[in-house]
Amino acid sequence: MISSTPKALLKLGSSHQKVIKLQQLLSQKVGPISITGIFDYETEIAVKTFQSRMFLKPDGIVGFLTWQALYTNAPVNMPTLRQGCHGSAVESVQELLSIDLYYTGVIHGQFDHEMHQAVKRFQADQGLPTTGVVDALTWRLLSEI
After folding, report:
1. How many CA atoms lie within 13 A of 96 on its CB side?
2. What is the per-residue pLDDT across 58-86, written as a single tens digit (0 to 9) for each?
3. Domain of life here (predicted)?
């Protein structure tokens, strides 16, 4: 964790020097927004967009995990997924991999053989080791889809 990560909890209506930093980071990662120092509706939408990309709950509130993702430009606290895993994280990966047709099966939250092969194809195209395991680096590249 980067020690300079702000710890301030920011949300709609906040006005603080840290809101300027937040708006600058969001402008780099989501697209240009107004740098006003006031957490307005435009900032909230940008926060929610960024949170969705980073697999965070898109609540528009900037807390510790959102700050960490902003500074690292990578998803945080994501589970390592492999064949046999199941649940909403697997379903999220299936949905993302289906966008570029790496995964063409049923989106059911089961990390089965078909899902394993889809992850390997994605990893190969991204220049990653083709382990078929969704690790931190794979999550980071998935967040760019």
Report:
1. 21
2. 999 999 999 999 999 999 999 999 999 99
3. Bacteria
Quote the CA–CA distance of 40 and 45 in Å, as a whole number.
9
The CA-atom distances, in angstroms, between 38 and each of 5, 85, 94 are 19, 42, 37
| 11/59 Cα distance (integer angstroms) | 9
Does the domain at residues 85-143 carry the CATH identifier 1.10.101.10? yes
Two tokens, residue 117: 């092969």
Between CA 126 and CA 33 the distance in angstroms is 30
The region, left, alpha or beta by phi > 0 then psi within -120 to 50, assigned to residue 87 is: left
Identify the bridge partners of residue 62 per DSSP, sorted by sequence position: 10
Q: Which two tokens stand for residue 19?
A: 């809101």
Tell me which fold the domain 16-72 belongs to: Muramoyl-pentapeptide Carboxypeptidase; domain 1 (1.10.101)
Average pLDDT, consecutive stretches of 10 residues, N- to C-terminus, the chain (145 residues): 65 94 96 97 98 95 96 94 97 95 96 98 97 97 91
